[in-house]
């Protein structure tokens, strides 16, 4: 529907698709690790483009280690509904033996999603770890972007923060109504995870599996990395008939071109049989194609 360039040759297209599946659409901008300046992702919603162009840092948690405050005054979980019901520390307490079903987290997730969802069962999901929830770090900037953005204030009510560790969970509970604690057997995601390191990959696979569960539960989602600033309402830009729409690093003015360098840091997925199957396949490719990522 948009102006386009000539399609690329089949080989290049296939390679791009394979890379995307293998690496889970990780965004890679390792060069930014060396800069001290915080690179904030800016979400450009470009009128007339069917692609969201994102500028990303990879996982710059190391920038925030020094902001650690052991007693954040804003932490206020005791009066919170979720804190009471989820027994607060339990999601991470029993690691490494903890598993989702034994913790009853699926029910908990259903409740969190239900509360956060828009009328059409769409939620906005982002993940957080301890380093990103330090005061004055990514978490605060992310929330701030919704407050100052154009038509984004209401969207904040539909954001679910998925905490990867206990500290992130407790800080979320103090500041936001929709928090979910995602435990992972024997893995501590609270610290820095360098791009393509073993922990980073585990975290990315865990995320894909988690999003699969969200789809299976019948919820559509926008997944947004927490370092994406929501300054405009992206819903105006989506194709109404798209099942899976993803940001890309390089856009070739053709929204079906597989060479568009998809970037997993921002995507919009509608829950239906096709997308459920796609996420199952994507997650299973972790074992079907070992050594690829
Ligand atoms: C904790 O949260 C409750 C309800 O949101 C609020 O009334 C109270 O002032 C908060 N306390 C602190 C210390 O932030
Ligand atoms: C929280 O979990 C602990 C350990 O599983 C249990 O002893 C305690 O009773 C629970 N508290 C609530 C309020 O459910
Ligand atoms: C996970 O939970 C299920 C259901 O409660 C249980 O059958 C299984 O043994 C648990 N696995 C581990 C590793 O605890
Ligand atoms: C806010 O977004 C709407 C819809 O995309 C647009 O029409 C309007 O011009 C924007 N306002 C500002 C101040 O950018
Ligand atoms: C867009 O990309 C697809 C897939 O590569 C290709 O088949 C199609 O011809 C392209 N469309 C245009 C207008 O270039
Ligand atoms: C989706 O899959 C389920 C189970 O395989 C099937 O019962 C249902 O008819 C499918 N729905 C559509 C719209 O294809």
UniProtKB/TrEMBL annotation:
Annotated keywords: Membrane, Transferase, Transmembrane, Transmembrane helix
Keyword field contains Lipoprotein: no
Extent of Polar residues compositional bias: 84-98
TM regions (residue ranges): 36-55
A single GO molecular function term of this UniProt record: transferase activity
Domain Nucleotide-diphospho-sugar transferase: 155-291
Chain segments carrying region Disordered: 74-103
Protein's recorded name: Nucleotide-diphospho-sugar transferase family protein
Organism: Abeliophyllum distichum
């Amino acid at each position: 529907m948009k102006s386009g360039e000539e399609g690329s040759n089949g080989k290049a297209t296939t390679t791009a698709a394979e890379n995307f599946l293998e690496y889970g659409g990780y965004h890679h901008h390792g060069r930014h690790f060396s800069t001290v300046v915080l690179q904030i992702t800016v979400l450009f919603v470009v009128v007339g483009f069917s692609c969201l162009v994102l500028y990303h840092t990879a996982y710059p948690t190391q920038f925030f280690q020094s902001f650690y405050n052991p007693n954040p005054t804003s932490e206020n979980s005791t009066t919170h509904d979720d804190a009471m019901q989820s027994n607060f520390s339990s999601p991470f307490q029993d690691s490494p033996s903890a598993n989702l079903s034994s913790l009853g987290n699926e029910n908990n997730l259903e409740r969190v999603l239900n509360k956060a969802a828009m009328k059409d069962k769409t939620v906005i999901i982002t993940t957080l770890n301890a380093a990103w929830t330090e005061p004055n770090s990514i978490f605060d900037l992310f929330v701030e972007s919704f407050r100052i953005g154009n038509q984004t204030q209401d969207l904040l009510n539909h954001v679910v923060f998925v905490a990867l560790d206990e500290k992130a969970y407790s800080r979320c509970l103090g500041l936001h109504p929709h928090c979910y604690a995602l435990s992972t057997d024997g893995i501590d995601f609270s610290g820095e995870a360098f791009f393509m390191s073993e922990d980073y990959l585990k975290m990315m696979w865990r995320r894909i599996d988690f999003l699969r569960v969200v789809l299976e539960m019948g919820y559509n989602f926008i997944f947004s990395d927490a370092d994406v600033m929501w300054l405009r309402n992206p819903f105006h830009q989506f194709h109404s008939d798209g099942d899976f729409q993803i940001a890309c690093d390089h856009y070739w003015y053709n929204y079906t071109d597989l060479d568009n360098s998809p970037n997993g840091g921002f995507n919009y997925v509608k829950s239906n049989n096709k997308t459920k199957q796609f996420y199952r396949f994507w997650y299973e490719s972790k074992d079907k194609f070992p050594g690829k990522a």
